[in-house]
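Handout, page 2. Input:
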Amino acid sequence: MVKLYGMKFTVVTCVKDGEQFLGHCLQTIQEQKYKDIEHVIVEGFSKDGTMAIIGNYIKQNPNKNIKLIRSEPKGISNAMNIGIRNSTGEIIHFLHSDDYYISSDAVERAVKLFQTSPGHEWVIGNIVVEINGEIREFKKNITKKNLQKMMSVFNWIPHENTFVKKAIFDEYGYFDEKLKQTMDYEFWLRFIDKTDPLLVNESFTVFIIHPHSTSTNPANWTRIAREMLHTWKNYKIIPFVGKAEKLTKLPIVDKISSLVRV
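Output:
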């Protein structure tokens, strides 16, 4: 059995008007067996009961390392970057108000993977969603090479089931605050071919699909498409192929881009 040697783990929760799911999210963090957890909460001046829930959470956990930062809402990218800047953990994990840990040993299992695979700088688990109270799990059994091809078409990396060493942010920068929907997609592409992710058939968290979710709301799909096309052009992505950095022009991407204003 691997002995945990004290890798500090930071959970970053960004929330604004998230009272519907926040209580359960915080409860699953509170129930984690792993003890060396720093929790950074970035709160966007909510107008619902979010602050009351956070206040109770802090009172109930006086011995836990909880940092509450209230910041004017300037987009999720900005909020996550604030969380990163205020993090001191070796591993960073984003768990927002409509996400929750699937079990009390979720963080412990993630830390063990970093310890038993020291050459990997980030860990990617399964896609797990909750739809109308039913949990659906999409297991992945793909290689890094296949992942890069898949990422040339769509963001197959679930941020809520992905754990990243702080060193990644130090070396490759933070989230692009100009992007409102696909900031994590652009971030993964920035270093996916320069680092060695560990892909595992394990589930750590659940993402709740609901009408107000920014990533699954159909009202945001046009913006998502525009931002993805913009990212493809910036990184010279050929769909179903991957990066083509030596090419100066991408006729396929340019043709698609002409149909959708980026």
